[in-house]
Amino acid sequence: MAMASFALLYILTVLQAPCPFCLVSAFCSVSIFLLWWGRGEVLKRTGGLAALGLAGGLVWTSVVDGGVVTPTPSPAYADASSALRGGETVAAGAIASAVAPPPAPAVATAPASLLKDLKSLDTKLYGAFWCSHCAEQKEALGPDWRMYITYVECDKDGKDFKGQCKIDGQKLRGYPTWTIQGIKIEGERTIEELQEIVQVIKDGGDTSEL
Predict the structure, then answer these.
(1) Is the peptide bond before 176 cis (omega within 30 degrees of 0)?
(2) What span is annotated as the signal peptide, if there is one (predicted)?
(3) Helix (H, G, I), strand (E, B) or coil at 150
(4) Which of 5, 103, 159, 177 has an alpha carbon 20 to 30 Å from 75's alpha carbon atom?
């Protein structure tokens, strides 16, 4: 029994884990050993003192260093806990960013003077409801563009389709397509390009490359 108790205490010191059963077993083993060795005479013998000191040392090591009262977490556990806490912080930050995204940058819109010029030149914009370039073109013109420009829906499934998607009797090659004072201009255009086109038309310049 004594050998088993000492073996348990040794394992306890290696594992650094609490084990009340091991301590009780060691105490019982030491008590039986003392009673068997001559009713206390073991204290007068060198060997008995050594055995008692060894047992006491193992018990002390198990209680104080083994972590029975206040167990110390292993380095691996501490690293895992730290990583977990770090992960929770990142996750919370990501959620906060998703809830409150940064404001979208303002989109430059056409000045009122350009819109008035386009209206005076009988401008039409041909497009389709599913056309992404058409949507971007409308956004660039600003929220009031319909007050100055006539929009022609060219897809039969579109809300405002009227079957008038031909210029000079010819089908359109793509969207968006413009007519400014009857001159066909293809493709999405920036505000600066529209200003240049309007100026060329107003000045009676060459429109063949517009």
Answers:
(1) yes
(2) 1-17
(3) strand
(4) 5
